Amino acid sequence: EAPWTAHGLRGAQAQEGGARRQEELQGCPQELLGAKGKRFAKKRYAEKAQMKKTLKMHDESSSRQKVDDDVEEGAIPSYLLDRDPTQRAKVLSNTIKQKRKEKAGKWDVPLPKVRPVAEEEMFKVLRTGKRKTKQWKRMVTKATFVGPGFTRKPPKYERFIRPTGLRFTKAHVTHPELKCTFNLDIISVKKNPNGPMYTSLGVMTRGTIIEVNVSELGLVTPAGKVVWGKYAQVTNNPENDGCINAVLLV
Ligand SMILES: *[C@@H]1O[C@H](CO)[C@@H](O)[C@H](O)[C@H]1NC(C)=O
């Protein structure tokens, strides 16, 4: 066999990699060569990276925990004066984790799976004038949220019409621990599970994450600041019920 044939190459590689590599690759189809092999390797690499990430995330961070509580007031040496107590690290890292999760669009939500809504159901085609073809105007048939200073675009440029009758500014938000419901102002639509277009249009369907103004609940952050906005998930079909029910994400 010539050394540049596929079999020859494979033999050489196996020798190079040694026994461990052989062991790892056991059970994978041996005929994965060329582009196929590359694809396999890429997939495997991605899987491994993901696994490592997951393991790391579940790893309890070994940040310092110790706080000297028996030291008297005013006894901090001058070189420590501009440092915060170490316990804050935990809170901060938790906040960062939360932020990361939000960035990835992953929340631990009460309704993890919702029925996807098709475009035909979401929009109604509007025919205007004598135009026979290329109907480009759409009317949103679901509940929407528009900001407080909203003005409609001129008709010529308005592709999506959000009817006033289906615009909402308030939501009935239940606090899962207090078991109380409050009628809160909606601040924004954070994420519609059906896609970013619906998020930016402010469409609220079942499962949508909205931001509500919780100032009247009087919540405070660990740092002592008053919280305005908190996320909540819509749990009903607002277009059917004429109101929005949501559960606060805590
Ligand atoms: C939240 O509500 C309070 C009181 O009703 C108001 O003063 C504040 O401006 C609101 N915040 C936002 C972000 O809408």
From TrEMBL:
<protein>
    <recommendedName>
        <fullName>Ribosome biogenesis protein NSA2 homolog</fullName>
    </recommendedName>
</protein>
<dbReference type="Pfam" id="PF01201">
    <property type="entry name" value="Ribosomal_S8e"/>
</dbReference>
<keyword id="KW-0687">Ribonucleoprotein</keyword>
<keyword id="KW-0698">rRNA processing</keyword>
<dbReference type="GO" id="GO:0030684">
    <property type="term" value="C:preribosome"/>
</dbReference>
<dbReference type="InterPro" id="IPR039411">
    <property type="entry name" value="NSA2_fam"/>
</dbReference>
<dbReference type="GO" id="GO:0042273">
    <property type="term" value="P:ribosomal large subunit biogenesis"/>
</dbReference>
<dbReference type="GO" id="GO:0005730">
    <property type="term" value="C:nucleolus"/>
</dbReference>
<dbReference type="InterPro" id="IPR022309">
    <property type="entry name" value="Ribosomal_Se8/biogenesis_NSA2"/>
</dbReference>
<comment type="subunit">
    <text>Component of the pre-66S ribosomal particle.</text>
</comment>
<feature type="region of interest" description="Disordered">
    <location>
        <begin position="1"/>
        <end position="25"/>
    </location>
</feature>
<comment type="function">
    <text>Involved in the biogenesis of the 60S ribosomal subunit. May play a part in the quality control of pre-60S particles.</text>
</comment>
<keyword id="KW-0690">Ribosome biogenesis</keyword>
<comment type="similarity">
    <text>Belongs to the eukaryotic ribosomal protein eS8 family. Ribosome biogenesis protein NSA2 subfamily.</text>
</comment>
<keyword id="KW-0539">Nucleus</keyword>
<dbReference type="GO" id="GO:0006364">
    <property type="term" value="P:rRNA processing"/>
</dbReference>
